[in-house]
Amino acid sequence: xxxxxxxxxxxxxxxxxxxxxxxxxxxxxxxxxxxxxxxxxxxxxxxxxxxxxxxxxxxxxxxxxxxxxxxxxxxxxxxxxxxxxxxxxxxxxxxxxxxxxxxxxxxxxxxxxxxxx
Length: 117
Fold this sequence. Notes:
Elements: H1 8-11, H2 14-35, H3 41-49, H4 57-80, H5 108-111
Helix pairs in contact: 2-4
């Protein structure tokens, strides 16, 4: 492993967040296209004949994909707001979600109480 530890600024680059949101949007669009039968002959024939009622699967996939992109981008932006700006330049050298230092809790024998009381 390298000795270089990434800073929070390196971890939270805006282009990476856009890439994550774009990936979620494309995934949602593909799932929508497959589940609505956009690649089947029956649906494509109905669209070509003009007998398909409602939103076409391609238009529906674009709407769902765009919505997933926007929702994911807003969700990630709200998560970024949780980060303290003073800690942005600090190096990350430990797991972020662990407590900084937790003192060992005293055992039941030392406090004189049991778990039942």
